[in-house]
Amino acid sequence: MADETIYKSETKRSRRSIATYLRRLAKALGRGKPVPVDDEQTVTVTPAAEPAMEIEVEEEGETLSLDIEMEWEGEADDVDTETNVSKARFELYEDREGKWRWRLVHRNGNIIADSGEGYASAQKAEQGLDSVKRNAPGGYVVDTSKDDHEATVEEGGSHATFELFADKGGKWRWRLVHDNGNIIADGGQGYASKQKAKQGLDSVKTNVRGAPVERTE
């Protein structure tokens, strides 16, 4: 059988963005789960337990390349091009005041993120959630209760930062702040502990990509 390319992607990324992508692959590999190879998590591959791995650094003129390749004997069932790793969906809706909003709903029924603000049109609201899709997975996590914010940075590769903070009532919350200063998402609810709030934003990081968008009443 002739070689067939099932999926291919070539884009310029920051080093932090690449690190975020590789961490997602590493997490799936470590857990023995199908590995999402695209950002939308719609293409997954299930490697063998012990695939052959080849690492090669090449120089061609003034260009350097680092190639990491895994190879194993498998079947077509090892690749799924129509999967949905996300366990959540975006709901796009119009509130009582005629503003458009979105919320990210986990399959367990919990709202794990929302737009915070209302938008003048459905198109604007969808642009807002698209920004969250792009920026949430690789967003920095900053604990504003600590003096040394740099020590709490965990991930990168986006134009937004997750801020963990305690509100006036002592509840822990998170918000996703774009580099332009706009809050593009928040957790909606307060959590009893910092750990619970962190788990909530981690769920957003994991599920935001690949989540379908549904317009509801």
From TrEMBL:
Region span, Disordered: 185-217
DUF1508 domain residues: 95-143, 167-214
Residues in Amphi-Trp domain copies: 1-80
PANTHER family for the chain: PTHR40606, UPF0339 PROTEIN YEGP (PTHR40606:SF1)
Alphabetical list of NCBIfam families matching this protein: amphi-Trp, HVO_2922
Record-given protein name: HVO_2922 family protein
